[in-house]
Amino acid sequence: MDAVMNWVQSGNLVDIGIKIVSAIAIFIIGRWVAGWVAKITEKAMERSNMDDTLVGFIGAIVRTMLLILVIIAALGALGVETTSFAALIAAAGLAVGFALEGSLGNFAAGVMILMFRPYKVGDVVEVGGHTGTVDELQIFHTKLITPDSRTVTVPNATITAGAITNLSAQGALRVDLETKIAHGEDFARAKQILMDVMTSTPGVLEEPAPAVVVLDMLQGGVSLGVRPHTTTDDYWGVYHGVLEGMKKAFDDNGIAIPAPRTDIVMVKDD
Question: Which candidate, 51, 58, 213, 234, has a CA 20 to 30 Å from the CA of 67?
Fold first, then answer.
């Protein structure tokens, strides 16, 4: 009992009490500051029209990192040696970084996509060797719906490593079709027939105006490019509708297409 009284009278208990109170105060105030800074960061990103997914994710990261610093500061106030503790956290972070190298690359790519927005949900894009409509845009991957109704999940790092083609960026998609007419056909008449097919097909836009262009002069005829414009939702309907309309119009108007031709050379042996 005397030893305990001597320890209390020596001031050790007071020192410990002060340290505990200081640690609790640092933790409470620090946690409030961490939350406040995270909210300020999120509001700043929202004002810059940043994607909601990215806002929430970065806000959580800021809050977590600040809380770690607050905990280390509170432990230091208790007299705990924090140098080795900080080194342990750094080493663990480095190990996790190496283990999640691919995921971190996808995360960094996802942040870039969400910040610069080369495409958004609903756009038709060509990315990572795939073409489809963007269904989901996440931090680590982008989900596409292909024309044949398949769901393709493409890692964001794969997307940013190559070219990104946004077919919807200009508000209208050009449908690239091709047909041929024989050399003996009236080009002006055939062009007008194709124009009529496009203007009568549901979903074809008036602006930009549809067009018919000469692509190539072939041995058996002329190759023509048929170029209607449409919206993302109507793309495949216009694609197949114009094709069907061209076939029917050519049959109804007697427009001939080049027949397959094979040249046979006969060599007479002496």
Answer: 51
